[in-house]
UniProtKB/TrEMBL annotation:
Name this protein carries in UniProt: Putative Flp pilus-assembly TadG-like N-terminal domain-containing protein
Keywords (A to Z) from UniProt: Membrane, Transmembrane, Transmembrane helix
Organism domain of life: Bacteria
Domain Putative Flp pilus-assembly TadG-like N-terminal: 22-67
Upper taxonomic lineage: Bacteria, Pseudomonadati, Pseudomonadota, Alphaproteobacteria, Emcibacterales
Pfam families named in the record: Tad
Transmembrane segments: 24-43
UniProt KW Transmembrane helix keyword: yes
InterPro entries membership: Tad_N (IPR028087)
Length: 436
């Protein structure tokens, strides 16, 4: 528009130059400031456009900083301070007519009323260099940005170590097919590691805080793009989640020393067992609902043993971290265990004391296709080695370990309604992102 006006005025100026009338001088005197004003309008508009772009960058960054503070459950004052500091880092300083306002939840826009979102508005009085000639006043440049916290993922396998190479490992000839995501919190360049002729089919994706290594002959199938260099997933049973604690009661041991269970022996009852617990090859045991505490011993289920139970949780602990035991489920064992759906250990089938030392052993779940576990298998201090899984379409299994290794073929189908019924916590990634 300014260019059209300028062209018109220049045409009129040309006519005035040819005029012999004395009035031409009067018209010329009137037109000169107008010409200068409209020419200046184009200059000023260009400056305003550049300022608006700079302000939009500051608003976007400020909204992201505020949303990140919100994701950390910081106070309203801390959220505003984070937004203000980030705006200042992008050359927007409040005062002298500049203002920053923040609302959470937003009151307008597509995310109005949603508590996980923040809206930042920046206002800046426009600089009037040439347009003062046109008597234009009080122009203000305004920008708006909205950012929020998204929960993405729905993982069922999570490696918790934050620095380890191959924290989540698929190697050899392992073939793992699961209808859920996998994640690793390690910052390693081999945070998730696939090598040999290993195949991993995960849905929706594979996510790592570090990088994902895929060997030449390994296969990684996901319906969505893989997500290396992502944020870490929150441990749903650790301090930032449910913060599981080892039970202190009952404190009296039902059995002291090695308990060997064979065919025909009475089924163990819930309680504290001080020493090893072994289900031998011919054992056929149905456990009553409750918590089975293995204090200072290992839990072993030999190949050929049958172990079932609903509402069952195994806890491995000890007074001395060196004595915290491991789990060893041999190939060929028939396992059908379901977690309780209420109480402190809702959704948990196996829980190892987080104080367990990594160097003291690993935990083997090698039962094969006859191993059906519905619930969380949680070993935050040690390695979890897994090979097995039911081919049925029901159930819900989570595997969480400091390191998780797949050593053979597994086919797992998680039914989210079963997960919700059992009270299994979701493993998801918190993503702070711009939305508007």
């Amino acid at each position: 528009m300014a260019n059209i006006v300028q062209k018109y005025l220049l045409q009129q100026l040309g006519r005035l130059k040819k005029s012999t009338s004395g009035a031409a001088l009067v018209y010329f005197a009137i037109l000169v400031p107008l010409i200068a004003g409209f020419a200046g309008l184009g200059f000023d508009a260009t400056m305003w456009f550049m300022q608006k772009r700079q302000m939009q960058t500051a608003a976007d960054s400020s909204a992201l900083a505020a949303a990140y503070a919100l994701s950390k459950d910081q106070t309203d004052q801390e959220i505003i301070l984070a937004a203000t500091k980030d705006a200042e880092a992008n050359n927007f300083t409040t005062g002298n007519g500049n203002s920053l306002s923040l609302t959470t939840p937003p009151v307008t826009g597509g995310y109005a009323g949603q508590s996980n979102y923040v809206m930042v508005k920046l206002n800046h009085p426009a600089e009037l260099v040439f347009t003062k000639m046109l008597d234009i006043k009080d122009i203000e440049i305004r920008t708006t940005a909205t950012a929020g916290i998204l929960k993405v993922g729905e993982h069922c396998i999570l490696a918790l170590d934050e620095t380890m190479d191959k924290a989540l490992e698929f190697s050899g000839t392992s073939d793992v097919d699961i209808n859920c995501g996998v994640a690793s919190n390690s910052n390693s360049t081999e945070s998730i590691y696939l090598n040999g002729t290993a195949t991993l089919s995960a849905n929706p994706s594979a996510q790592a805080y570090g990088d994902i290594y895929q060997g030449t002959n390994a296969t990684l199938n996901t319906p969505n793009p893989i997500q290396p260099l992502s944020q870490r997933a929150i441990d749903p049973y650790g301090p930032e989640g449910r913060d599981l604690e080892v039970p202190t009661l009952p404190s009296i041991c039902i059995n002291t020393g090695s308990l060997q269970i064979k065919l025909g022996d009475p089924d163990p009852l819930p309680g504290r067992y001080c020493g090893d617990m072994t289900f031998n090859a011919n054992a056929d045991t149905t456990l009553a609902p409750g918590v089975y505490i293995i204090d200072g011993g290992d839990l072993t289920i030999r190949g050929g043993a049958t172990l079932s139970g609903t509402g069952v949780t195994f806890v491995l602990t000890a007074a001395d971290p060196d004595d915290i035991g491991t789990v060893d489920i041999g190939g060929g064992a028939t396992i059908d265990l379901t977690a309780p759906n209420h109480g402190d250990y809702a959704g948990i089938v196996f829980f190892q004391d987080p104080r367990a030392l990594y160097t003291e052993g690993d935990n083997k779940f090698l039962g094969g296709p006859a191993m059906n576990i519905k619930g969380a298998v949680y070993f935050p201090g040690q390695e979890l080695r897994f090979s097995g899984g039911s081919s049925t379409s029901s159930g819900c299994l989570q595997l969480l370990g400091r390191k998780v290794t797949f050593t053979g073929n597994s086919k797992l189908y998680n039914d989210q309604s079963d997960c919700a019924f059992l009270g299994i916590e979701k493993i998801s990634r918190t993503l702070v992102t711009m939305v508007e």
